[in-house]
Amino acid sequence: MDTSLTRRALIGRTAAALAAAQLVACGLRGDTALTEADVAAALSRLARDLFPHDRVTDRHYAAIARGFLDRDIAVARLLVQRLSAPDRPYHHQDRAARLAGIEANITDAGVQAFRFAVLLGLYTDLSVTRTFGYQGPSFEDFGYLERGFDDLDWLPDPA
């Protein structure tokens, strides 16, 4: 087992620990009716709300949510409880209510930890970045000068 600690792992673990401490300290209501499936669905919805891309499938968001949930189910459950309304779980709220909840809690350590996880999960996944038109790293082909530098067909010709 590799016991080395990378900077990314340290930041992730620190953010998760801070999120757990802050969420517990906030005195959340004792709503235990959320099942693991509810938490996963809510996290998947939250991921799409934080980074809405029409071309990214729900499967990608669900995989990121599942990874966050598997790392620490208690933090994930507390995060979803914090964003849920007293009468409706997060993923059953309308868009305006979800976005208002995110806006009210955007500086929360739990939201930031999840946002960071989604950011890394989406934009380091080659199958996702290809949907945005990213052709992969350029160093193998000596940059973009001969590969894709002049293929801006979506912009008007400056000449």
TrEMBL record:
This chain's protein is named Gluconate 2-dehydrogenase subunit 3-like protein
Q: Which organism is it from?
A: Eilatimonas milleporae
InterPro entries, from UniProt? Answer: TAT_signal (IPR006311)
Q: Which domain of life is it from?
A: Bacteria
Organism lineage: Bacteria, Pseudomonadati, Pseudomonadota, Alphaproteobacteria, Kordiimonadales
